[in-house]
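Appendix B. Chain record.
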Amino acid sequence: MPNPRILFLLLLALPLFGCASGPPAKFFPPDLTGDLPAEISGVPFHPQDALQCGPAALATVLGWSGVAASPQALEPLLFVPERNGTLQPEILAQARRHGRIPYEIPAEPAALVDELAAGHPVLVLQNNGLGWAPAWHYAVVVGMDPENGTLRLRSGTHEDYDLAFETFLNTWRRGDYWGIVVLPPEEMPASVRPAPVLSAITAFARIAKPPSVETALGAAVARWPEDAGLRFALANHWYAQGRHDHAEAEYRKILAFAPDAVMARNNLAWLLAEQGRTDEALAVLPADPGKTAKTLPSDPWAQSLADTARFVRCRAEGGSVAACENAPPPVE
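Structure tokens predicted for this chain:
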């Protein structure tokens, strides 16, 4: 069991169903090039039955990612009778349960372009009705033809459904420009920044096996090597798996480019003290962590530093890990 004093990141909330009115109108970048795929290869087609667009769309992107799934198998896992359809959180959850990570792309047409350029089909939510009479629909964008001004979708009963830019953007806008790419753990999205990538991997880690989480975090760190949050999550993963040498290396890498990263300093000092390396642990801590806690009483990191310093001193005096974990604060 990982030590409860080691600090872990909190999860972010799942998105909710889009509103009917939609955000302001947005447009594709004016400088689209011919390098965009007219159709991404290897994307299967699953014609939907009535009210089955969610299962069909998810089966499509799962199949492209290497996971065989049929709409019929997914329907009982996704369909919400009270809504006569599928909600976005259910799509995200089922993607994770099938060993894939769903990444929400930014609500920008340019993000969809970036994912297509990277060869990633994008599952989108459209409203093919009106604001006051919505007709929600999931489809998968699989290509783009800037010269003709069209997108290619797997949609409904149409395998190659070409839709004009303006028409697509109008229907996608009424779905709040919601879209996801569903990727294997070793692959990163093209348009998503480190913080939401970490949130997506953290949600995946709730149900995934440790090797898959390790693969995803390793891929993210390789993509953004100087993002402290991603490296911190990877270090905590190693700590939880008992790979303390790997965790120590990651904490030290964070401090090499972000010496003010209190979270890494705190956890590294605790880890070293657990191993009896108390001189090294003391060198990692601020000169007076107790004073820091008093100066910033509402800062959880400052208080954690004070608790960790007490643990390190207790270990330096020969106390066991179990005894020092519960060492009372000094009487003042």
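Further analysis of this model is presented in Appendix C.
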